[in-house]
Design goal:
The protein is an alpha/beta fold. It contains 15 helices and 15 strands. The chain is globular and about 85 Å long.
Length: 432
């Protein structure tokens, strides 16, 4: 009933400029998304409004223009660079006599094409089911009446209600399987924490060059392409860093402005690789004119998934496309690396990146001796859960004396959520 368009279909793209900055989208990004989905954009309809129209999202005149463009170009699908309500999609489909997709539906379709692993496919299906659950009426308008006939009388349940019930059951089943995957990932992370192996996570706007950088650092052959959302499933590799030893590098899904909330929720298990990282490598395509806006969008998503307090090292990538820019390390007033200018594709500045990573991680661990009173039992449990205790003993008055060794990000997170004043419990700072 829900016919997804196929690669090579003809599409009319619709982009509306709003006066409100929070509602603005990028037309070039829509074209890149359409190309990534394998759609051939035959025409683009643009316009401007102060606010969306309740019936068609655009005005009635612009809606007629879109319908005429569809007929003239014999397009198979209309793709909006905005989020549409289910009723707006239905009204536009009735007017245009073809499939209408919004920005969220397009991104979901790209994700469905890219998913390779079992986990990735489950996550995409979960996001898709949540998205179409409000749009079931489109596929089942001929089955709104209650069931009837021999063998079908009784429950008084319409086909729509049956489908909604089946959808809810499927969503619950997928969520249960993803929780199992999440537990498996958590076990792997605990093993790395026990072994005191730091984790680095590549984050950044989609198509910033994360997978190319990942391949350069780890000598891997992860799929990398000049298209949006080339990477969907997370990949982990072990690397060796001077003065630090082994570390785990994780390649993650790229972010995009107005990333659908269903996707953020569905990819929770994947994004936990980012949440639990000791250092985020924020890859930025500095040859992109909108790199500042892209940086802001990535930081917004990091804030949304509670990863905004994790230390970042910015990777200023694709300097081979810029004139007069050489590989270098930018440092703060304390001499610590803040930016590495490089080209992952050309291999320029790779040795500088390894130097910066070693410096960041060497100072990114904290060692403290704590004196914890008996009434702070919850804090004691939290420390055991973090597997950060290297030595412990008891004072004569019953206080717990403990030496901890943990990533600075975990220490900050613990200090933020703990009711105890951790700084007041420190007896001694131990040099690493």
């Amino acid at each position: 009933m829900f016919d997804r368009y196929e690669a090579g279909e003809q599409a009319v793209l619709v982009h509306i400029d709003f006066s409100d900055d929070s509602s603005k989208e990028d037309l070039l990004e829509l074209q890149l998304l359409a190309t990534s989905a394998g759609v051939n954009a035959v025409d683009v309809v643009t316009g401007s409004r102060s606010a969306p129209h309740t019936r068609y999202f655009v005005g009635s005149g612009k809606a007629e223009e879109i319908a005429n463009t569809v007929r003239a170009s014999e397009a198979d699908v209309v793709i909006f660079n905005h989020s549409l309500s289910p009723s707006q999609e239905r009204n536009l489909e009735q007017l245009c006599k073809c499939r209408v997709l919004d920005r969220t539906g397009l991104i979901l379709d790209i994700f469905a094409q890219r998913a390779r692993t079992h986990e990735g496919k489950l996550q995409v299906e979960l996001a898709q089911l949540k998205h179409i659950s409000t749009r079931l009426i489109r596929g089942w308008t001929h089955l709104e009446r209650q069931k009837g006939g021999i063998g079908l009388r009784g429950p008084g349940e319409t086909q729509l209600e049956t489908d909604r019930r089946l959808l809810r059951a499927r969503i619950k089943s997928i969520q249960a399987r993803l929780r199992k995957v999440q537990k498996q990932r958590e076990q792997g992370r605990r093993a790395r924490i026990r072994a005191e192996i730091p984790t680095l996570a590549l984050v950044g706007y989609t198509n910033a060059g994360k997978s190319t950088l990942f391949n350069t650092i780890t000598q891997s052959d992860v799929y990398a392409a000049d298209q949006l959302f080339a990477t969907l499933d997370p990949t982990l590799r072990r690397i060796e860093l001077q003065d630090v030893g082994p570390a785990i590098l994780a390649d993650t899904v790229g972010f995009i402005r107005h990333l659908p909330h269903d996707l953020v929720a569905a990819f929770k298990a994947t994004l936990q690789e980012t949440q639990q990282a000791d250092l985020l490598l924020h890859v930025v395509d500095y040859s992109d004119e909108q790199f500042r806006e892209n940086i802001d969008q990535v930081n917004e998503v990091l804030d949304e998934i509670d990863s905004d307090e994790i230390p970042q090292l910015m990777i200023c990538n694709k300097i081979d496309r810029m004139d007069g820019v050489e590989p270098r390390i930018d440092r703060d007033e304390n001499g610590l690396p803040t930016r590495v200018w490089m080209s992952a594709q050309q291999g320029l500045g790779t040795e500088l990146l390894f130097e910066a990573l070693s410096e960041c991680l060497a100072q990114n661990m904290v060692r403290h001796q704590l004196r914890i009173p008996p009434q702070e039992g919850k804090l004691r449990g939290d420390l055991f859960n973090l597997n950060c205790i290297s030595e412990e003993s008891y004072a004569d008055n019953g206080d717990w004396l403990v030496e901890i060794h943990m990533p600075f990000a975990d220490w900050q997170r613990l200090a933020k959520h703990s009711e105890a004043d951790l700084d007041a419990l420190i007896i001694e700072n131990i040099e690493a």
